[in-house]
Amino acid sequence: MIRLTDMTLAVLDTTKCKTEALVEFYELLLLMGVDRVEMNLTEAQRLGSALVKERTVVRMDDPSKNLEGFSWLLCHEMEVSGICDLSLLERYKHHDNIRITGLGDLILYDFQSEFQKIRRLLPMSAELCPDNGYGCAGAILTEWLMDGGNGAGTFMGVGGFAPLEEVIMALHIARQHRPCLDLSMLPRMCQLFTEISGIKVPSHKSIVGHAVFEVESGIHVDGILKDPMNYEPFSPDLVGAKRQIVVGKHSGLVSLKHCLSKLGFELPAEALPLMLNDVRREAVSLRRALADSEVLLIAEKVRVDHETESISHGYHAS
């Protein structure tokens, strides 16, 4: 049985945030799919009665202290800068509560073989907390967990660690880990994360970015309208998001037709290519996808121009 620890509250400076925001974020972390939430003693004291003691790890440096009812971590935290330093782990083979940090370069090697080396050097309870120096900490941690190990990371990968929202979703999809998983609270978690840390969530951040399910490219829109699983490994509802088909410089006629239908605007089929050219030109000028109001303005202009041209042709024909 794997064990996943969230270290977000141990990494962030929470001294300036409201206690209410801290409590709500902590409670949502517990719902997100992690087994334990780690924090410093000051956060534990602030959270008080909101803490679920059996799922809370208080980071401590002094083993003489004893907080009744809490898990506690006198962490033998061994930073291993790279694969070449793996042999240094042998000195910790008789310790409990070991966490290995670093090893971001595992992705460059036969990581399954390297996992076996780590297991021979350390007890099974050891946690792996890879750094994100190569942008692959989430992938490394996911593979380690699927191999039966224990691991640690943070929400959004803050602090340079594995982003746990990605790891949890990967485990859910690949191994049906926590089959009843509900991550619809993630948008709220992002709001609280920004409030506590001051860090804005990038719009296209995997899993949690608000624009992750925005689709513009014509071939992608066509595929998603036929079957969302063509491009979406999971439903937007699972993470509290909604799919949005937007029009911009990469859009095709399928995207445009869908958008006009959604807006309740009818345009003759022969006018659609003309409108698509105008849409693409405007999107390039604005350097972004168009808002619904902007699409409607272009549609109305094209409709008037098309009707005027039709009347003109009818006049000359008569």
TrEMBL record:
Protein name, entry field: 2-isopropylmalate synthase/homocitrate synthase post-catalytic domain-containing protein
UniProt-listed PANTHER family: HOMOCITRATE SYNTHASE, ISOPROPYLMALATE_HOMOCITRATE_CITRAMALATE SYNTHASE FAMILY PROTEIN
Source organism, top-level taxon: Bacteria
UniProt organism field: Youngiibacter fragilis 232.1
InterPro entries cross-referenced by the UniProt entry: LeuA/HCS_post-cat
2-isopropylmalate synthase/homocitrate synthase post-catalytic domain: residues covered: 207-281
GO MF annotations in UniProt: transferase activity
Listed Gene3D superfamilies: 1.10.238.260
Keywords: Transferase
The keyword Transferase belongs to this UniProt entry's keyword annotation: yes
